[in-house]
Amino acid sequence: MSNSVKVNSTDVFTALSRVQDPDLHKDLVTLNMIRDLEISGDEVRFTIVLTTPACPLKHQIETEARHAVMSIDGVSKVEIRMDSSVPSDGRARGLLELPIRNAIAVASGKGGVGKSTVAVNIAVVLAQSGAKVGLLDADIYGPNIPTMMGVSQLPSPKDNRLLPAEAHGVKVMSIGFLVKPDQPLIWRGPMLHTAIRQFLTDVDWGELDYLLVDLPPGTGDAALSLAQSLPLTGGIIVTLPQQVSLDDARRSLEMFRQLDVPIFGVVENMSYLELPDGTRMDIFGTGGGQKLAEAAGVSFIGSIPMNSSVRVGGDSGMPVVLSSPESNVSQALITISKDIAAKISIAAVQGSNFIPINIVG
Ligand SMILES: Nc1ncnc2c1ncn2[C@@H]1O[C@H](COP(=O)(O)OP(=O)(O)O)[C@@H](O)[C@H]1O
Ligand SMILES: [Mg+2]
Asked: Which ligand is nearest the CA of 319, by number?
């Protein structure tokens, strides 16, 4: 009878060392993801600690781990808790010491391509997955994150520190809270460097797994100030599919390169419009984002279709991933968010030195 066989932890670790994290290409034991192993009789309990709560392969990993342990002789029940702990990429370059694990810059060559929309929705998706997320609006030309997140003012400062606003589980700070809408750009420009430093030093963000930064369009000072203030885990470029937008996007890619910021890749927005009969209409051309990514040697992260619910959501302070989660745009945004979370986990693993655990057996 199988329940007379005594199960031991070596058997369990050996079984789990055959389960790979498909993104990180290493097994769960080597990745030190297995914690709190308990064995009582024929029951095995443990926790799998993933590198991001937004892991797109969470269920697959859980299923494979369960299957591996169930196939050990003598095991009749497996209980798995799924947890996560987001690592930082260890690229700290002696900049500001902040409890922010990963800062991600969202850039575009020009305005109006959906940069803020992408930043807002990624932030909300990551927060919904259980991560601690901040969203910093550094776009002096159009600080519209507050509108898109449905917040109009900051809470009162506490102990001389600014507190971010909070909406949809995301901490929000915007240059829009500090400058008046009618203030001329000539004043805003020089303020930006100081403002970016202050956003990081004088704002009580608390601990964050991810800070998304909505940069002003074009190449410029904001990105430089940001890169000089904290280590950026990576940058994302948002573009439309057409050539003019791509030329500008290309310059933003070069800007990240010059600042030594790793590039996560290109997101193409407003790629097509889905007509009621299911056919796709390419409004701004087709495939440009992919071509740009290929030409620049960076990843293509995904395309987002056009959908009027995006604008409605943006104007009403209810991001589309919350107002119509089932829509084609939301599905695209969710996939893109998870892909970015996975890329951050991969960068973290490659940046640190994993010490493989040797399994006897
Ligand atoms: N995929 C989309 N489908 C429909 N409207 C969109 C889409 N992406 C962005 N928009 C709308 O386009 C306008 C510009 O987007 P926004 O995110 O503000 O661009 P940016 O920050 O690059 O200036 C907004 O009104 C927004 O709601
Ligand atoms: Mg914007």
From this structure: 1
Which ligand is closest to the CA of 145, given by its number? 2
The pTM of this model reads 0.80
Q: Which residues fall inside 5 Å of ion ligand 2, going by CB?
A: 116, 142
Where b means 16+ CB within 10 Å and e means fewer, 2-15 reads eeeeebeeebbbbb
Task: State residue 185's pLDDT score.
Answer: 65
pLDDT at 351: 59
CB of 142 closer than 6 angstroms to any ligand 1 atom: yes
- Alpha carbon distances (Å) from 320 to 120, 196, 316: 9, 28, 10
The radius of gyration of the chain's CA atoms, rounded to the nearest angstrom, is 22
Does residue 343 line the site of ligand 1, with CB under 6 A? no
Residues paired with 212 in a beta bridge: 104, 135
Q: What tokens were used for 32?
A: 């030190």
* Ligand 2 midpoint to CA 61 (Å): 37
Rounded Cα distance between 23 and 111, Å, is: 33
Contact (Cβ atoms closer than 8 angstroms) between residue 272 and residue 283 = yes
Task: Tell me if 311 CB under 6 Å of ligand 1.
Answer: yes
76-126: pLDDT as tens digits: 999 999 998 876 654 444 467 778 889 999 999 889 999 999 999 999 999
Evaluate: CB of 150 within 6 angstroms of ligand 1: no
Cβ of 112 below 6 Å from ligand 1: yes
pLDDT digits (tens, 9 = 90+) for 57-71: 899 999 999 999 999
Per-residue model confidence as pLDDT tens digits over 236-276: 999 998 876 788 888 888 888 888 889 999 999 998 888 88
CA distances to 62, 91, 291, 340, 359 from 33, in Å: 12, 22, 37, 20, 14
Given the CA of residue 110, which atom of ligand 1 is nearest to it?
22
